[in-house]
Design a protein that fits this description.
The chain has helices at residues 11-21, 68-78, 107-115, 153-162, 168-173, 197-210, 228-236, 250-259, and strands at residues 23-32, 35-44, 47-53, 56-63, 87-94, 99-105, 120-121, 177-182, 188-194, 219-222, 241-244, 262-268, 271-274. The chain is α/β, with parallel strands linked by helices and 283 residues long. It has two domains: 47-136, Ubiquitin-like (UB roll); 153-280, Cytidine Deaminase, domain 2 (3-Layer(aba) Sandwich), CATH 3.40.140.10. A six-stranded mixed beta sheet has the order 9-8-10-11-12-13, with helices on both faces. Strands 5-6-3-4-7 form a five-stranded mixed beta sheet. A two-stranded antiparallel ribbon has the order 1-2.
């Protein structure tokens, strides 16, 4: 997982820039009290992003065209394709139909990828569309049960209170999910946004890896439900505590229980529900 490193990620300026390139102005007629008015809205960009490993196409996701290097590294790790140390380079190729992330990976990672080929019809709402077998849905995860992290309820409240400030794309368009990384005290150290919740989490994971964060020393908070894919992606990155502002699914709870992850749902202000491994919550 990430090595010990900086305690903050330069996300504020970066995310403001990302929001600017990921939103497009569009004319709109607004109605209030039955009367129309002409205005301009900013809408979130949504483009096909293809993942290509050593020249071989693997997956196409619909995503926000920002933080793409983070996306490449995070997706590669969270999908079990390659560790960050096995990713030798990422080239962002802009085409007429979308964007290609040309990722060069180690021969050993590429061999495993070819042995477990999986074709994804990229969608913002589903992270396992196109899986070729059940073993690709519930894949092996690291055992997180021994990680000694402890988090106070006040830390979760602090993280929730800071969400709005680190979501410029959501503020501008109302159409983006966010994923943030917090220290044990709840201070937000890194944030990423995307129209897809899985994509936002992948971008966050990639940012953590590229900035040298120790993923065992804090927790992640996502502005969505906690699906099994969110659990699997975060657990694959060594994140022992995942909090979501909405509900978890039954399968997500089962997988979190099995891999030793603390799963929190309905994290809103000072209230939340702990579904698994509650010993990490102090008090």
């Amino acid at each position: 997982m990430g090595a010990a490193g900086p305690v903050t990620c330069a996300f504020m300026a970066d995310q403001d820039i990302a929001a600017a390139v990921a939103a497009e102005p569009r004319p709109v007629r607004r109605y209030g009290a039955g009367l129309p008015a002409t205005a301009t809205d900013e809408v979130a960009s949504e483009v096909p992003v293809a993942f290509e490993y050593n020249g071989i196409s693997h997956a196409v996701m619909l995503a926000t065209p920002a933080d793409l290097h983070d996306f490449a590294i995070g997706f590669s790790l969270s999908e079990g394709i390659a560790q960050p140390s096995q990713c030798y380079g990422v080239e962002v190729q802009q085409g007429a139909a979308g964007i290609t992330l040309a990722i060069e990976v180690a021969a050993s990672a590429f061999a495993l990828l070819k042995a477990h080929r999986r074709t994804l019809a990229g969608r913002t709402g589903c992270g396992i569309c196109g899986a070729e077998g059940l073993d690709q849905v519930l894949r092996p995860l690291p055992d997180l049960s021994a990680l000694p992290l402890r988090i106070a309820p006040a830390a979760l409240a602090r993280a929730c209170a800071g969400l709005t400030d680190v979501q410029p794309l959501q503020r501008r368009t109302g159409a983006a999910h966010g994923a943030v990384w917090c220290g044990p005290d709840g201070a937000i150290a890194c944030a990423r946004e995307d129209i897809g919740r899985h994509n936002a989490l992948d971008k966050l994971i990639g940012a953590l890896m590229r900035n040298g964060f120790e993923t065992r020393a804090g927790f992640a908070l996502v502005t969505s439900r906690a699906s099994v894919e969110m659990v699997q992606k975060s657990a694959a990155a060594g994140i022992a505590v995942l909090a979501a502002v909405s509900a978890p699914t039954a399968l997500a709870v089962q997988v979190a229980e099995n891999c030793g992850q603390t799963l929190i749902g309905f994290a809103r202000g000072g209230s939340f529900s702990v579904y698994t491994h509650g010993g990490r919550i102090a008090g």
